Amino acid sequence: MTEPIKAAQFWDLYFRNLFLRLERDGSGYKGVAYANDSGLGPPAGIFHERPQTQIQVSRAELVSYDYSSDGRFSLFLARPKSIGTALDAIISQSYPYRDPAPFSKERMAQLCAELRERIGSANEREADLSVLHGELSRMLVEYAPSFDQPIAALVWLLGELRQRDSAEPILQVLQNSPYCPIGKVQVHFTALNAGFAALWKINDKASIWKALELMRESDTSGRQKLGALIERLFSTKELLSLDLLEEDYFSVDFWLARLKPYRDWNTNDWDRYDTNALFWELRCLAAMRLSASEGGLSQMLLRDEVATVREAVRQQGNGAM
User: For a surface tag, which of 59, 208, 301, 307 has the fewest beta carbons within 10 Å of its beta carbon?
Assistant: First the structure.
């Protein structure tokens, strides 16, 4: 039996990644989730049995939710947008952390102060992405275990900046991991986890072909992590979950065939695609990235059930990013 739930319950399931299946349409969401108990997140084992429940939540219920009082939403648009202001906020420990950093605020402040000193000595002007990417590349080329924490902090920062150009350097970090035998070094798992999280936040779908090449070279654990990333990036009306796709979830050939029609898409095409994303974070990012000529899609997002998406459209209309 399908159980109607409140918005707060739905978002708790959503942020704890408890959905096995999920569909979105004009009336709201419906899906199958692990029973909402005291556990955090899904079971560790893929085939571990756990009680499930069928749920639905109405659009009206979601629209009426108080998003401004929930930091998981309100902090999404509060982050500093430039490299300089982001570093300043992290170093002063005033950064609005929505997503957990790899380390404590104090340690992040230390690591980012060291990062700013390194890139400042190489470039006196405001650092741009190429400077950060060059620093990341340098640490991989000259890798030593002492670089693991600086790499993790820098990758996390790149994720927070959400610039598409950062996807490829982060994929290079993932290539140098225990998951992938072709890597020249083995970066610590802290940096790798930061990398997967950063690729989700950056949402550069044009880099998916390189991610699939990496998936083909990866071991089972690497394929599981990359499958989870692809699931979130490409789900629209329906969650492309392991429960739905079964063994295809880990198949590079399956994903290549499914995504083949989009091979020649540009960033504008992907922004339009994301206006129908299942995950509200991608719809919000689309609202900030859409070109001025996409007024119709912006108007559609102004009717989104999530207030943060609607606010992103309004900010973009005022010239904010």
Answer: 59
